[in-house]
Amino acid sequence: MAGGGSPLAGTAEPADATDPALGPVRSGQPTPGAVGRAGPGAHEGLAEPTGTGRRQRHELWMRRALQAAVTGPAVTGSGVTSPEAAVAAEGSADDVPVGAVVYGPDGTELAVGRNERELTGDPTAHAEVLALRRAAERLGRWRLDDCTLVVTLEPCTMCAGAIVLARISTVVFGAWEPKTGAAGSLWDVLRDRRLNHRPEVYGGVLATENSAVLRAFFR
Ligand code: ZN
Predict the structure, then answer these.
(1) What is the model's pTM?
(2) Less crowded by CB within 10 Å, the N or C end of the chain?
């Protein structure tokens, strides 16, 4: 977005879930991942960022997640890399660059995660899971009500399950993942109507840029 890029540090803009202008999730809107979708929630549309402020916030937050995907989680918002972070980022060069950030109800950055499956040899070390764990640790509780999780790639079934269990209120994701995506592509775990907690979902945010980073990795 033109004119974007100014750091949001310090501004306590309300997150989506607490935004008084927040409307209900609209149903029946087609989504890019809706082709061939079947099962619960397949007919439900993704939420649309109606307000300009919300869209800008989502894009700003997505750039932060993308930064984490590329350079590792320990990089500060100002782009300053600590020696430890540099080592961590170097060590995870084999990992698919996926980044996730959890924001609190007031827009505070709570935790960052980068996919560390190869680095740690842990099959569950996806960016979303790591960010959720760190956010819960920071808040001292497992419930992450009114928090927003931003991730550069559509969550898989494991991460979508973890997001629901953490009671995350809003999910913003970047590139669609037609092979494993569980937020509308292959499944829609996040908005399965059989579950009593369903976060609001915004998909395809900065999808082109997020896809480009992944394509560059797999090239
Ligand atoms: Zn995952």
Answers:
(1) 0.73
(2) C
